[in-house]
Predict the structure.
Amino acid sequence: MTWIWSNLDLLWDRTLDHLVLSVPPLLLSFLFAVPLGWVANRYRISRGVILTASGLLYAIPSLPLFFVIPAVVGTSLRSPLNLIIALTLYGVALMVRVVADGLASVDKDVRQSAVAVGYSGWSIFWQVELPLAAPVLLAGLRVVAVSTVSLATVGAVIGAQSLGSLFTDGFQRGIQAEIIAGIVLTVVLALLLDGALVLLGRILLPWTRLASTSRRALRAARVTEVSE
Amino acid sequence: MNLFADALNWILDPANYVGPGGIPVRLVEHLGFTVVAVSLAALIAVPFGFLIGHTGRGRGLAVATSGGLRAIPTLGLLTLVALWVGIGLGAPYVALTILAIPPILAGAYTGFEAIDRTVIDSARSVGMSEAQIMRTVEVPLGLPLLIAGIRSATLQVVATATLAAYVADFGLGRFLFAGLKTRDYAEMLGGSILVILLAVLLEGIFTGVQRLVVPKGVAAARPSVDRGRSARPASGMDPAITKGTH
């Protein structure tokens, strides 16, 4: 405990480092996954190709991926950019399926009604499909947030600073309190981001009755997890 | 692309295939470790999962525990246990068995829950005992989702076993850390490619197995899309990631 009190600055710095590593992938993966998921949902062939590719991508272990990305992109091995790219890839792999499933979950009758009252393809997506799929997307984003925060710690073994640095440093110097503080902070950060997303959902999606829809959305996200 | 050529040369270099630190030895270590850790986890998780799935009791607790376990960063658990039990294989075994439990547990009980209730009621009404229902109805019908859980656990362990080379001298992860120490990028990249190939290969094998274990009648009657779409549990905060902590 004394270690923690005398190193509060370090803990705070590492938490900020961690946020810098984990928030951009969260936003980026959402931005990339929505169009990809739309394409996957739209055509049968693209669905197979995109979902298989994202499944394979997600099967790639993170540590090796951290080594491969610099060779592909040309960044230096210890650059935080590697981690952000890798975490974005995992986020996209996870979100694409959620987006495709979310869009597929929109009732066909609703879509046809929209066509019938004169919506164009573009406005059906923005004003009908996306809002109706939003609870599912939110549930998927929550999953991505928690896994991204957890995964970002792995970068510490190759020298990218994050809360994971507390693990490597604590291990090398034999300071148990440092590792425990790192675990607790990682879990807390994941919970905070998750909570922030839930809050954002309440503000941005006032039309969803959270009690019933979040359950359905969570279920959809979890089905993705096991059956994929 | 030159970097990949170097890595390929490293992978193909016969000198890397001999001795105690050679690629075959590391590969066998990696796979052996994975098999043992996943088996240990399955021994613990499958009976509990079946029991939860059959009785419908204790699911809330299982979901909460699994959710909590999944949020814990692997590297943290690994280094913490390594400080307690010392450098060596002990820490990875403990940490990775713990990590492999949630997906297998979830696979076991969701497999039971996904079964149409009327099927189980029919089995009961024709006079099957509870043990018979489990053995001849629930286990075969729930098998695909259990295999899906084991697949997630296996891929997670294969991935994390690479990381475990940080605290123990074993597995393909050694190449990554050894290369990192000597700044030998060909070795790091070569080792990484081997791990990725192994993971993708296992993913492919499991996809095949998952298809094979669907009982014939079920495969014919049910479109594969709604596999497992029924009664999945809900909870407040559940990361719902089985392969999330690579």
